[in-house]
Amino acid sequence: MKSQLSYPKYRWVMLATLMALSVIIQMQWLAHAAVARPAEAFYANQIEHQNWLNIDNLALIYMVVYVIISLPVSWILARFGLRSGLLTGAVLTGLFSILKGMAGNNLAIVTVAQLGLAIAQPFILNSVTTLTDQWFPLKERALAAGLTVFSQFIGILLVMVITPMLVVTDPSDGSYGKGITTALSLYGYISAAVCLAALTLVRPRPAIKNTEDFDDRTPRLSDITSLLKNRDMLIGLFLFMVGLGIFNAISSLTDAISASMNIDDSDGLIATMMMLGGMVGSIVLPICSDYFKRRKAVLVLCVTGMLPGLSGLAFAGDISSQPHMVYFTALCSTAILGFFVLGAGPVGFQYIAEITRPVPEAFSQGMVLLVGQISGMALVICMSVNNHVWLPVLLQAFVALTMICLAAVATLKESPDMNHEC
User: Fold this and answer.
1) H helix or E strand, kind and range, residue 209
2) pTM to 2 decimals?
3) In angstroms, rounded to a whole number, what is the distance separating the alpha carbons of residues 332 and 151?
4) What is the pLDDT of residue 211?
5) What pLDDT was estimated at residue 264?
6) What pLDDT does residue 397 have?
7) Which of 193, 155, 145 is nearest to 62 (CA)?
8) In the chain, pLDDT over 90 holds for what percent of residues?
9) How far apart are the first and last CA of the chain?
């Protein structure tokens, strides 16, 4: 049995700081998403004269840049430490948020600022398991990771609610699109304040050394090879590729999914229910994992729980011919799907960090996020072909793919840390 170790209470301040940074980086990502059509009207003259300027590109930049720099940023986090990585992310976020807010009426500058924010994103998102493993005891790590996932969806919900309140979204109004600059300025000030606070609050790693910790060593390219030779890591990558890919694809095309079910109202409730379910799952399931000292069992539960969620979404039209029942089924199904997919995320992050040591945890987390991002982009493209003609078929294929995941997750070994007292 391990001796009890004293972890500093300041760990909660570090976690709160990372959560705050996660909130604002997500808000900056989707600042225009909820008001895309009014934003296109606001920037109409600039879009007409520059083909590369596009409102949809502002969100896409985040995904493309992440794919390119995720692993290099993970190396930087492992090589120079959590504090250096978070401070870099905070500085980049603060500077480019202010630029975006000050030049909100110039789409070209906004796009450049979005590129800078996209570079800042992996410094924040890829640091989760590094922080949990360095600052938290084993019994709290999945919960801490879950809280960071929860904070990301707080950021998404905030921007989806606040932006339409600040922008004129009625097409019949002569000032249609007005308020874009106000929203960007507000988000710029909020982001700058959070980043300034982070510069003063982020501290070096506490002086706690035990066998639960990862080795302090310079990361090597061979670490990636080591990850790819680890059987459980490969299964984990497959699970994240499917789970995150499906979640990213469905969340990106919720309105198209509604249309495929003959639901006329583009009210965004399907996406909202999935995020709300995910927020609950990202807290409840990590708590269960920490309390019962089980990672594999929770992951099996999550993949099992995905099946009714996906099945209800894929076959809602076959369950009932009444539109209101189809809509109700879709809402319940996406809430269930969000609960289990996003609840699995932080547990999966922690599991992979624990079974791949002594590889730096930033590498393992960066890799699983990378495959989820790539698969999500690929699925969005496939589901969008020929005006979403393959979307219903692919939703049904997701059910079969999840059944394969269930067979795969059952073969995982339990995390070695679950056999030890914290």
Assistant:
1) none
2) 0.78
3) 23
4) 41
5) 56
6) 92
7) 155
8) 41
9) 9
> What span, in angstroms and rounded, lies between the C-alpha atoms of 346 and 145?
5
Say if residues 131 and 14 touch (Cβ distance below 8 Å). yes
Angle between helix 296-314 and helix 231-252 axes, rounded to 10 deg: 30
| CA 193 vs CA 118, 162, 409: distances in Å | 19, 18, 42
Among 23, 243, 44, 255, CA closest to 153: 23
Q: Which helix (H) or strand (E) holds 137?
A: none
Conformational region of residue 210, where left means phi above 0, alpha means psi within -120 to 50, and beta covers everything else: beta
Alpha helices for 174-322 (secondary structure H)? 180-201, 222-229, 231-252, 254-260, 269-292, 296-314, 316-319
**Quick check: 251 and 382 in contact, CB under 8 A?**
no
- List the Cα angle 181/151/77 in 5-degree steps: 95
Residue 150, exposed/middle/buried by CB under 10 A (0-12, 13-18, 19+)? buried
Which residues, 6+ apart, have CB-to-CB distance to 183 below 8 Å? 31, 35, 104, 162, 163, 166, 167
Tokens of 44: 């109409």
Looking up tokens 């998404």, which residue turns up? 156
Which residue ranges of the chain lie beneath pLDDT 70? Answer: 1-5, 48-52, 208-221, 252-256, 263-268, 317, 319-321, 419-422
DSSP letters spanning 60-121: HHHHHHHHHHHHHHHHHHHHH-HHHHHHHHHHHHHHHHHHHHHTTT-HHHHHHHHHHHHHHH
Q: Are the beta carbons of 35 and 167 closer than 8 angstroms?
A: yes
Q: How far apart are CA 298 and CA 340, in angstroms?
A: 10
Contacts of 211 (CB under 8 A, 6+ apart): 2
Angle at 189 between CA 187 and CA 192, to 5 degrees: 105
